[in-house]
Amino acid sequence: MVATTFLVFHALRTMPDPEALGLWQAELGRRLGLCGRVVLAPQGLHGIVGGSPQQLGEYAAATKQHQTLADVRFSWSEGRGSEAHELTVSVRADVSGFGATAERQVSGVELGRDRQLTPHQVHDLVAASGEEVVFVDGRSRRASEVGRFRGALVPDADESRDVLRDLDNGRFDGLEDRPVVIYSAGGLRSEILGSLMVQRGFSQVYALDGGIVSYGTAFADRGLWEGALYVLGERVQIVFGDHTSAIGGCETCGARTYSYRACVAPLCTAHALLCNGCADFALCVAHRN
Predict the structure, then answer these.
(1) Measuring CA to CA, which of 16, 32, 55, 109 is 20 to 30 A from 65?
(2) Which of these, 171, 172, 175, 205, lies nearest to 190 by C-alpha position?
(3) Percentage of the chain with pLDDT > 70?
(4) What pLDDT score was predicted for residue 287?
């Protein structure tokens, strides 16, 4: 496993020419030797970029000097994973992965700063309201299997685009008047999902400002977060302390783990939640065959 420093970031704002920005970001990443992923769309951008602190400092400074990206919000964290891949930059129709509709254009996702809570404000809310507070995971189910807030409502979604089904199929019924804290890796999806819940009449909806990365950096293993933050596209587990709990179950033997591994079968591109022993056994069998 390779230790790396990461920047997680997003911005929700109109991008006049995401294709040109994508080309510039790709060139910047290659020049600095970064790994990770950046996604741009007409409504904004988000990404996770890994490298040395010096490389990332140069990247953040260059990015914020661009007039279109001056308001990008960066969160720093430490992670570990497989051998790093070079930076990939993609341009899509929808920045969130939820699906591009008129309802989710940038003008409709402004939550307002009063509804975006810092990690310490989240603790204040829990101290004031106790078990009335509901944490809602804005990511896919597979991401939540290796890390989530204690007692969180986890989406019944295999992909990001499926998360919004929960909003329309009654899964959140009964939460309309309860304090709801929505979270995602860097904060972009929680900001969008929170806005949509407000539009549907939920009265006490908040988004975790800076996402899981911001919370983990503030509280490490001492807070309400359990497990690791998994970034599927980069096969990276971000852990926030020396005593990270493994809450996921190995798909082969059931042992506790927070590591997804790439499938070793020929032509297989899937990932499986595997403990070290089962992963080593699968790799050994694949090499024999």
Answers:
(1) 109
(2) 205
(3) 84
(4) 40
